[in-house]
Specification:
Length: about 290
């Protein structure tokens, strides 16, 4: 009896490095523009994803935090096992806040509850969950002191993740421009509690209208992860965030590599929206 043979996928694989220093760039997004598929490089800058199958050629788009976006032409059916992609660093203009005759106080913004709602927010490597920290009372803001995430007790709460902070300058006020341009990778000591990340040394100036704080799920170690959320044997990747229902508007957006940002619009029976449980402490200038 003849058996059907399975064909191994044609792969694109290699390493992403800094163009000047030649150092590897960990946790870099690589995606195929037309295929709308992608992956995240691991902590050694190594990546792997299937070559295009829809069109004769496609653009492999490389997006590293603090670096210029890069597109590399790749072809259908053509394996590339040892790609080395050199990415140039982006010139960053550092901002500063000058206080003249005023006092600086600490201001808490974002989620206020210490009791999470029912449900969970989880992701795959390279996906993000962002919550808009709104300047509700139009205070004059200075630097962002810290950001906090409520990490659930389930999943793998001590796995590393990356902190991202964005301006709300995308389409429909989505997250877009990074204002934390350095890679801040952290790990919570435990789940079932708030985990706070000190950002005072990064001198990130808070936009007056507010800003997005995001958790980015990343790859740890030298392995690649592929997860099917519809699989009944699914094991959660990394940590799980818990939701809050204290807001009537949707302030939470989710990001998927190659597909971009989408707003989360779920609500409970009382009309409160399902939002990520994230908060921040900011300098308030009086």
């Amino acid at each position: 009896m003849a058996q059907a043979q399975t064909t191994a996928p044609v792969l694109l694989a290699g390493k992403i490095i800094d163009k000047e220093t030649k150092e590897p760039l960990p946790f870099t997004s690589v995606s195929l523009h037309d295929e709308q598929t992608g992956a995240l490089s691991n902590e050694f800058g190594v990546f792997q994803l299937p070559a295009p199958v829809k069109n004769a050629q496609d653009s492999l788009v490389v997006m590293a935090l603090g670096y210029k976006h890069l597109a590399v032409l790749v072809k259908r059916g053509q394996a590339q096992a040892n790609m080395v992609i050199e990415v140039p660093r982006m010139a960053i203009a550092l901002s500063s806040v000058t206080v003249k005759g005023g006092k600086v106080k600490n201001l808490g913004l974002g989620a206020t509850s210490n009791r999470p709602g029912e449900g969970l927010l989880q992701g795959q490597p390279g996906s993000q969950c962002a919550f808009f920290i709104k300047n509700d009372k139009n205070h004059r803001l200075g630097n962002i002191r810290s950001v906090s995430f409520y990490i659930g007790e389930n999943g793998f709460p001590r796995e590393p993740f990356r902190v991202r902070i964005y301006k709300a300058d995308g389409n429909y006020n989505a997250p877009n421009t990074d204002i934390l341009t350095q890679s801040v990778v952290v790990s919570s000591p435990a789940g079932g509690q708030w985990y706070t990340v000190d950002l005072t040394s990064y001198n990130v100036v808070a936009p007056e209208e507010g800003f997005f704080v995001a958790m980015e799920w990343i790859v740890s170690g030298d392995k690649f992860f592929k997860t099917d959320f519809m699989d009944e044997n699914y094991t959660p990747f990394g940590q799980i965030m818990r939701p809050t229902f204290e807001f009537k508007e949707s302030r939470t957006w989710n990001y998927t590599i190659a597909r971009g940002w989408n707003q989360l619009t779920l609500a409970n029976g009382q009309g409160q929206r399902y939002n990520a449980m994230i908060k921040a402490e900011v300098d308030m200038i009086k």
